[in-house]
Amino acid sequence: MLDGKVAIVTGAGRGIGREHALALADAGAKVVVNDLGGSLAGDGSDRGPAEHVVEEIRSAGGEAVANGENVADFAGAERLVRQAIDHFGRLDILVNNAGILRDRMLVNMTEEEWDAVIAVHLKGHFAPTRHAAAYWREQSKSGEVVRARVINTSSPSGVFGNVGQANYGAAKGAIASFTLIAAQELARYGVTVNCLAPNARTRMTEETFGELAAPDEGFDPLDPSNIAPLVVALCADDAQDITGQCFFVYGGAVNVLRAWDAGELVAADGRWEAGDLLAQLRTRFPDGAAPAGMIASMAKAGGQSLQVG
Question: Which residue, 87, 177, 198, 204, shows the most beta carbons closer than 10 Å to its own?
């Protein structure tokens, strides 16, 4: 499906990113395997994981090169994009997948823990996309037909929320919004932008939820390779009109999530008085309005029911 295409996959040394790189190569793409090779918290560096994936691809008959740039570094991201263009002659696909984890309850989270996670996830999506987009814009302006793809990585924590991950979830939610806007801006140049909210067994998920054992037999819904077919499909030329979407993926299930919408409407002919508005909200939500489980938690903590949240 992707013969002749050139792809960058960030954070491709392990887990979901590794599976993306292998699947793209199997579909015919030449792949730049990016991975800083740091710890789960983002400390240190090691080119070993990226180089190992490159060897896997080459052993299977594909073409790949390793890259150890920090994608949260603006100049490093530019060098990453330039490596793909210089080495393979073009760039068609950017899969932003790199990330770290520093879970902490909000009341205990340090500034550094917040900044590090936001930088790697959110800036680490912006910087490579910014440089790739500039390349594709120049191609389009010179009259070339561009069929480029950006695949971003959000998370169930970003679109549904998860306790102890205010930094991670905020970054991942922002990535979903970044996807919507980038899709709108880059459509004119022939670029589609989509994002994934994958649920799979990785270093990150096992750090958060504990060991997630694979079944002894049968289909494994948490196998990280389950996510890769969607990436390959979205990168195909026939997916040119699929953009600005966020896909929640678990096993064989793919949910195309809805973006923010108008939701529940409580309207008046003019400006509300606060007391009247509260009365309407209490009438509209007699059992309270909050994510599942929060009303009971608030009632236990405060000794009264939470009416609106």
Answer: 198
